[in-house]
């Protein structure tokens, strides 16, 4: 573990924060950028038309560099559900087709597809979670020539079970189906090879593994949708020439280039955009492979503690590597354990009967030992 990374985060020494899968720990530079954004927004007379578009384009470029795609394929969105709604609005779904999802999938990636299924008289197919079957196998078994959309995460939000996007992407293309990925629980911690996976849409919130602010996320849109795609909103800011505010009443049909037609209406955020730039810039300094390796090191330490205590965790080969799902039974009272941990200034999440442990680069050996000590005391 590189302990020097902790100094970049604004976390008191007495806090053990293992809940990055919910809201990311705050980088000092991200907080500083947010305060500077507030100061700028407090002086609106100093804001120029150029200010509205310059920072979003810097962010688009930084994010595209981090995930290794063309900046023209990136749209800025306020939430995962917004990005999923864009995908659901654009992908054609015929009657009697099927849409493949996961059992207990995060609801932001469910409700839009339920509506489309009702509207199109299509069927939702649910890939079940099995002890002896991986989620990837369950998904692949449901894809056939009638599949219109496969819409899944890169890993399950409750315990980090990994899905093989390369295999699923190949199966979807063979079936003529679109692939939609909600990467909110992985992007920033687990790289996606976009050239190999070839997804149609990938969405992620910015406030989890991408270390940014709440209410600003990212939508990757494959180039096939750039010229024909229909946005959720018809904002003046997404139209060609919108940089010149004096000409906004000269209505135009053309959109700004690439995926920018899918930007949400108020993407020119004066506070959250600078925060996101600071976050993605730091991720670029680290590099995605470094983050993945360091997080895997931390979760392996946590798994080792669980193994010594005889606690079941999802096997490493089926896990994403940045989340540990600790399986407890009802008698062990997961919610009570969460309360005990919180009283010791240790923060995790409970998802069903699973204790979800999600460290980040601020997590050091002292943090992990404190977590293990309280866990042992509770279970013994």
Strand order of the largest sheet: 2-8-7-6-5-3-4
SS-derived structural category: alpha/beta
Distance between the termini: 29 Å
Q: What share of residues is helical?
A: 25-40%
Order of helices and strands: EHHEHEHEHEHEHEEHHEEHEEEH
Please state roughly what percent of the residues sit in beta strands, choosing from under 5%, 5-15%, 15-25%, 25-35%, 35-45% or over 45%.
5-15%
3D shape: globular
Average residue pLDDT: 94
Rg, Cα atoms, Å: 21 Å
Number of strands: 13
Characterize the main sheet.
Answer: 7 strands, mixed
Put simply, the count of helices is 11
- Uncertain segments: none
Explain how this protein is built.
With 380 residues, this protein is α/β, with parallel strands linked by helices. Helix content is 36%, strand content 14%. It has a 7-stranded mixed beta sheet with strand order 2-8-7-6-5-3-4, sandwiched between helices. Helix 1 packs antiparallel against helix 8 (272-286) and helix 2 (49-67) packs parallel to helix 8. The chain is globular. It starts with 15 loop residues before the first strand and ends with a helix. The mean pLDDT is 94.
Record keyword descriptors for this entry.
380 residues, alpha/beta, seven-stranded mixed β-sheet, four-stranded antiparallel β-sheet, 11 helices, 13 strands, 36% helix
């Amino acid at each position: 573990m590189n302990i020097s990374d902790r100094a970049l985060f604004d976390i008191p020494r007495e806090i053990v924060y293992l809940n990055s899968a919910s809201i990311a720990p705050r980088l000092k530079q991200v907080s500083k950028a947010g305060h500077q954004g507030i100061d700028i927004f407090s002086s609106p007379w100093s804001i120029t038309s150029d200010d509205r578009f310059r920072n979003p384009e810097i962010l688009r470029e930084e994010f595209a560099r981090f995930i290794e795609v063309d900046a023209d394929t990136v749209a800025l969105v306020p939430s995962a559900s917004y990005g999923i709604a864009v995908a659901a609005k654009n992908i054609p779904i015929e009657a009697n087709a099927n849409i493949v999802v996961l059992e207990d999938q995060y609801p932001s990636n469910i409700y839009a597809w339920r509506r489309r299924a009702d509207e199109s008289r299509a069927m939702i197919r649910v890939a079940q979670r099995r002890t002896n079957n991986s989620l990837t196998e369950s998904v692949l078994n449901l894809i056939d020539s009638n599949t219109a959309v496969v819409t899944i995460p890169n890993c399950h939000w409750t315990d980090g079970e990994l899905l093989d996007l390369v295999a699923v992407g190949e199966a979807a293309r063979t079936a003529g189906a679109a692939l939609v990925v909600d990467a909110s629980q992985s992007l920033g911690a687990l790289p996606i090879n976009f050239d190999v996976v070839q997804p149609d849409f990938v969405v992620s919130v910015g406030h989890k593994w991408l270390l940014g602010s709440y209410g600003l996320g990212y939508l990757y849109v494959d180039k096939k949708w750039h010229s024909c795609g229909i946005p959720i909103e018809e904002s003046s800011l997404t139209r060609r020439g919108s940089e010149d505010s004096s000409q906004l009443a000269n209505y135009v049909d053309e959109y700004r280039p690439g995926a920018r037609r899918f930007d949400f209406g108020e993407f020119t955020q004066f506070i959250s955009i600078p925060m996101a730039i600071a976050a993605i810039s730091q991720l670029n300094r680290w590099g995605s492979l470094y983050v993945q390796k360091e997080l895997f090191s931390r979760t392996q330490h946590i798994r080792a503690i669980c193994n010594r205590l005889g606690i079941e965790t999802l096997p490493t080969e089926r896990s994403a590597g940045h989340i540990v799902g600790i399986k407890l039974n009802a008698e062990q009272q997961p919610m009570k354990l969460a309360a005990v941990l919180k009283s010791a200034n240790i923060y995790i999440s409970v998802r069903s009967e699973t204790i979800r442990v999600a460290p980040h680069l601020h997590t050091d050996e002292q943090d992990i030992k404190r977590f293990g000590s309280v866990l042992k005391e509770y279970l013994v």
